[in-house]
Q: What sequence folds into this?
DNA sequence: AAGCCTTTGAAGATG
DNA sequence: CATCTTCAAAGGCTT
């Protein structure tokens, strides 16, 4: 197994992690995808724009194949007209300026409208943005911070005032990656920007996507001073929001995970809390509840619990079936990968920020945030995932992911719908992509609500990839 | 009630 | 080997 190659345990730069950081390799792939996607988008929208811009756009294609910009100016210009109209229709002209046709959450629609002459966001616009899309505020800070970081490295003092993006230090300004720094805040210190931060732009999302340098730090950061207040990605270690992440059973009883554990526990504590006591020597400060690995899910938990409570008055027949169930191999779940660990940690935060609850939408946000993470940040989760796999293998040597395949490969009904030839789930490739420059309508997450709000027909409004969270026009 | 949606990554299955 | 598929979490949504 590649993840065990190191053997020493702390080979944080294991091959699998390095392979996982395939951004450079992916980059070209996505670049070409994006180029074609933008060409498609440009084709679709060509009827809406001036023909005179066509040549400019096509000339940028070859450039885009080599090194595509986040968005071409021509494309930006093309989207402005419709966007301006859309913006006016939506909020009565609050967003008068041309929107930023990129990542929806970092797009403060061009900054000519909602901003005051001194460069700060107008109270009205700020309130609107915060109400409509709290993430926008954060991400706007991210954008500004990135801009500031980029400028800070430049010889000019442009980080103070940018002619394109006014640097607004919001009262709640935080570093864009602050919410993601869960174990150590040594990275991304303001004024000491990581050199990789704005180096690249995700061709799909428009998010500055840092290149992944080859020198992944083997450091497994667990900063005692900063981690205790933040949910741990290993949810079974530190329950989030007072809730056990996994319903755990031991002998037919549910056990919440010990809440006294802290993230900055040592590895022995980690093992003690993470795995059954027979696997790990007990720790003096931890109670040994006999909690099995959270990956084990026994489907008969409630039944067994209730039966144990009631007593052993059931028929032998029932007990036989019960024994059969007990003999039944418990469902050992797959170890969580890096992104799953990241989602576990960040989901509650995103939910709180944007007031969304639907996991599909949350996961989209988390996916974009994941790509916005620096390599160091991602490395922490890859490392956690690697340890997860190691521990999982140690606990269940004979387990295989194949065990969880229902009916075996190719026999289970295909879950995902077959996409239409031109259909895609990517916002950046959405036909209605310009809508992403507008704040999402978080309270109108259904076509019906969207139509009611905007009085538009179904086809013109409902954006399937956007799942209705954005006003599409 | 069951399955879908949506994300990324790991791993198994298939051609 | 490349590609495809499933599963891991999560909770609202759809059928």
A:
């Amino acid at each position: 197994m590649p993840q065990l190659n190191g053997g020493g345990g702390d080979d944080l730069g294991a091959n699998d992690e390095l392979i996982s950081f395939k951004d450079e390799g992916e980059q070209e792939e996505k670049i070409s995808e994006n180029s074609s996607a933008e060409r498609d988008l440009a084709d679709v929208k060509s009827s809406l724009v001036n023909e005179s811009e066509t040549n400019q756009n096509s000339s940028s294609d070859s450039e885009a194949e080599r090194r595509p910009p986040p968005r071409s100016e021509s494309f930006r210009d093309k989207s402005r007209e419709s966007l301006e109209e859309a913006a006016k229709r939506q909020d009565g002209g609050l967003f008068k300026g041309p929107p930023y046709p990129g990542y929806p959450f970092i797009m403060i629609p061009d900054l000519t409208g909602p901003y005051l002459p001194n460069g700060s966001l107008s109270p009205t616009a700020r309130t609107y943005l915060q109400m409509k899309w709290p993430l926008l505020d954060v991400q706007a800070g991210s954008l500004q911070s990135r801009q500031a970081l980029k400028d800070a490295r430049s010889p000019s003092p442009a980080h103070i005032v940018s002619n394109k993006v006014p640097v607004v230090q919001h009262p709640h300004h935080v570093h864009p990656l602050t919410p993601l720094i869960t174990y150590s805040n040594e990275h991304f210190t303001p004024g000491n920007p990581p050199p990789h931060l704005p180096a690249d732009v995700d061709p799909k999302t428009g998010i500055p996507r840092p290149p992944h340098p080859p020198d992944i730090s083997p450091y497994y950061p667990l900063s005692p001073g900063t981690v205790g207040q933040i949910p741990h990605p290993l949810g079974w270690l530190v329950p989030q929001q007072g809730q056990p992440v996994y319903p755990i059973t031991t002998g037919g009883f549910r056990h919440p995970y010990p809440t006294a554990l802290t993230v900055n526990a040592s590895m022995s504590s980690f093992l003690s809390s993470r795995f059954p006591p027979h696997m790990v020597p007990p720790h003096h400060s931890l109670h040994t509840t006999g909690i099995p690995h959270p990956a084990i899910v026994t489907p008969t938990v409630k039944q067994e619990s209730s039966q144990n409570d009631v007593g052993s008055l059931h028929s032998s027949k029932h007990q036989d079936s019960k024994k059969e169930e007990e003999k039944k191999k418990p469902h050992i779940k797959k170890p969580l990968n890096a992104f799953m660990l990241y989602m576990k940690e960040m989901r509650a935060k995103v939910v709180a920020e944007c007031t969304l609850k639907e996991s599909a939408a949350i996961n989209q946000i988390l996916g974009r945030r994941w790509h916005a993470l620096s390599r160091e940040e991602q490395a922490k989760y890859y490392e956690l995932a690697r340890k997860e796999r190691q521990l999982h293998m140690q606990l269940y040597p004979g387990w295989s992911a194949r065990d969880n395949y229902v009916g075996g490969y190719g026999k289970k009904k295909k879950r995902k719908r077959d996409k239409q030839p031109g259909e895609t789930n990517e916002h950046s490739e959405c036909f209605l992509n310009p809508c992403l420059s507008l704040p999402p309508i978080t309270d109108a997450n259904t076509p019906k609500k969207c139509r009611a709000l905007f009085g538009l027909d179904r086809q013109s409004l409902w954006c399937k990839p956007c799942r209705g969270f954005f006003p599409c026009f």
About this structure: Residues 235, 245, 295, 333-337, 340, 343-344, 347, 351, 356-363, 401-402, 404-406, 409-410, 412, 414-416, 445-446 of chain A lie near DNA strand C (CB under 10 Å from a C1').
